[in-house]
Fold this protein.
Amino acid sequence: MSELDFMGFRRRDGGIGIRNLMVVLSATDAANPVARSIAAQFPDAVAVTPPGGRGQLGDDLEQRIRTLVGLGCSPNVFAVLVVSLESVAGERIAESIARSGKPVELLSIQGEHGTQAVRRKGVEWLKVWQRERDRQRREPGSARELSIGLECGGSDATSGLVSNPAIGLVTNRIVDRGGIAIFSEPVECLGGEEVLRRRAKDSVVAERILATIHHYETIAMRAGVDLNRINPAPDNIKGGLSSIEEKSLGSICKSGARSISGVLAYGERPSGPGLFLMDAPAPATENITALAAAGAQVILFGTGMVNTIGSPIAPTIKICGNPNSCRTMGPHIDVDLGDVIDGTAGLDDAAEKIVRALSGVLNGEPTCCEVLGELEVAISRIGPSI
């Protein structure tokens, strides 16, 4: 048995999850309070309640729907209750999730004549699913069925020296075994474009990589912002990063060294195995939401100064190479790689430590984010509401 093989929950569409979540998903923010109140009554239920959903148009609306459907279709999800103010907003989401073979129900506040009836019926549905879910047993899964998201935040000098390169070694293993790895944050690649261009599988992918990265520079310029003046961020500078190029080259390390198979839209699921760049912005909560929506069962999150947030859908493993942060922020760190900076371990040792932690999480061990409840969902916006 490979160190990346695991026992998971087999889905009707052929996928396999490492969690067996019941999700209460709000189609629009008007339904967020009742969705949260239903989920709160079950220890293994998750409320997906991002702001927005009304008055969104075009690409902005399509991105929101794609992301919500992706979260509902995650292999880590057993069943989904969609809650909406009125039925139309929820129908498209519920119908799309149902195509995955998951149990799905839709309740609308207006259709049920108020939130009290929605709450009562929602609780009854989750009780039914809970009984069905508790009968399901874990089955063997292999590394080629894995999809991992790659994230870094609260970066410092140790991110590019330790945590991200060690994550990159693990990324190579997963890709080599036929799995999927997704890295994102194109704005964190500025200054390192040529490194990624040379790793593209063909010229079409190379051009998409460059266009995706430079699009974020264009967004900033239109707003009158010079990214070289605001990036690295204050916590990055405090942690020892001196330039956007230094930060970018350190961030890119987590993608490993394999060929890049393609570029994905925000929350888009890859069509096959390999390494992919996703067009998702750098803020951590928006980014991990997109990675989870793309089907990632787990997220490897390198951090130096420590960013504490995690995804409620894809368990988020915090990996840190800063000995001081590991000491002062210990309850938030899953993998302490401070011994590499201390000189008592090397990067290969660090990669093995990540693999052991990853194996534990794949087989049911909780992450620090899950234990502490540091979980959130936020979907990036493209345009203003009307």
